[in-house]
Amino acid sequence: MKLIIASNRLPVYAVKEGDSLIFKQSPGGLVQGLSASIGTILEITESKDYFWIGWPGETIEEVNQERVYEYLLKTLNAIPVFLSKEEMEKFYLGFCNSTLWPIFHSFPSFAKFKRDEFERYIEVNKKFAETALKILDDDDLLWIHDYHLMLLPSFIKKEKPNVLVGFFLHIPFPPYEIFKLMPKNMRETILEGVLNADLIGFHTYQYQQNFIKTVRSIFSIEHDIKNIYIDGRRIRTDVFPISIDFDKYNKAEELPEIKKRVAELKNLSHNSKVVLSIDRLDYSKGIVNRLFAVERFLEKYPEFHKNVLFIVVVVPSRIGVEKYNETKEYIDSLIGKINGRFSTIDWSPIQYLFKNLPFEELVPLYILGDALLVTSLADGMNLVSKEYIAANPKGALILSELTGAAEDLRRAFIINPNDIEGIADTLKEALSLSKDELFERNKIMVEYLKKNDIKKWTTSFLEELSQCTPTKKPIYLD
Ligand code: GDG
């Protein structure tokens, strides 16, 4: 038996440097999570082998494809699905990130519904299926990840009905009223695709229930709180809140190079209170709301001037999608405005980094940060908040109630990202607590993360999937 993982991205991505291609570790929650637990996955599924199918992160010219294929297979058990520039535009930047992402994050006015992009989405899902089918045997397990590959379960079951297929959605599933805004053929094809999986996983109960209610509203089916019954088939759904490699973050402080960097940063920040934020560039992360709150905080609490430093890290993402470019411009101008308004010759309130940071730079920031400010307007889980508490149990976590993480990290300072005044006041309250008080407050969350780490997540999903009986007849809904 083999385990096959399919995700849009492989754990590495190719970068062109002059005439050569080099591979770097992919950023992002999914890859971080899965890479950390591949050993455990093999153990619990009793798989002899595993393969990872995904896009290698760059348009690879045809002449180089064979070489890249062999290299990835040999070094990482990874099988690349090569996508052309046009496929990347219409599939990835198009239907995935200009249709599904805004709809699933409840930003319907940002969504475009283009038939040619949807057709490319179907074709790319077929391409992934063809790659998977080349190596899939009847007794294999296939774990499909995220909104890029929602049609893959259908294409697999049609050819190999005995393969156990699991699907995990890393982003929210929206309420029916929002999902329904997608044209009929798109929304029905998407649901039919996912419903061909044997187990469908979500981060929270709310997303799971949104999914079940949506399926019930669009098709007449039977269901209970977890299961959907169609044509004599039982499709399981369940809640698996993703987590982190707890020890990696919790023990990072002991590493000499991290310790050294934290000391250097403390010096540079002149021992001011540091409020950190780290997100991919995305309107769903509420970075603009956060900046409004920072401005309000500085206005309302002048005693913090020169005593606080906001480190805002924004990681480049989906450049080329119009809404992302607009969001970036808005963030740039707001930071300029706030710094222009409050800076003095020897102090600027916001230190802004628009770049990807290596782990050795990211973790010292977690440890340095007296507070982490998460203001997402919608966020499947938000791993940054979990990593922060693991790395810095004496820090203040200010967390949007609109993240999946708010379900797990209940002792955080919970805020609503639209309540600008409320965020400013919470920030003041959080910054006035001592490290000891925060350590006490965070204890339950630290324990929770220790017990519920990434291994627990992968184990729970794959154990439940292993217990399913493969549904042999693919579903075609009318
Ligand atoms: C999606 C969902 C869900 C970030 N910047 C750097 C960096 N990162 C790492 C973090 C963390 C991951 O990327 C980000 O994960 P998040 O969960 O916060 O957000 P998304 O990327 O939007 O992830 C999300 C997740 O999938 C998992 O299901 O939680 O809701 O949107 O691990 O550490 N890592 C490095 N440098 C950076 O600059 N090295």
TrEMBL record:
Domain of life: Bacteria
UniProt lineage: Bacteria, Pseudomonadati, Caldisericota/Cryosericota group, Caldisericota, Caldisericia
Organism (species): Caldisericum exile (strain DSM 21853 / NBRC 104410 / AZM16c01)
Keywords carried by this UniProt record: Glycosyltransferase, Hydrolase, Transferase
Name the UniProt record assigns to this protein: Alpha,alpha-trehalose-phosphate synthase/trehalose-phosphatase
Family: In the C-terminal section; belongs to the trehalose phosphatase family. Belongs to the glycosyltransferase 20 family.
GO molecular function per UniProt: alpha,alpha-trehalose-phosphate synthase (UDP-forming) activity; trehalose-phosphatase activity
Recorded name of the encoding gene: otsA/otsB
Assigned EC number: 2.4.1.15, 3.1.3.12
Cellular compartments per GO CC: cytosol
GO biological process: trehalose biosynthetic process
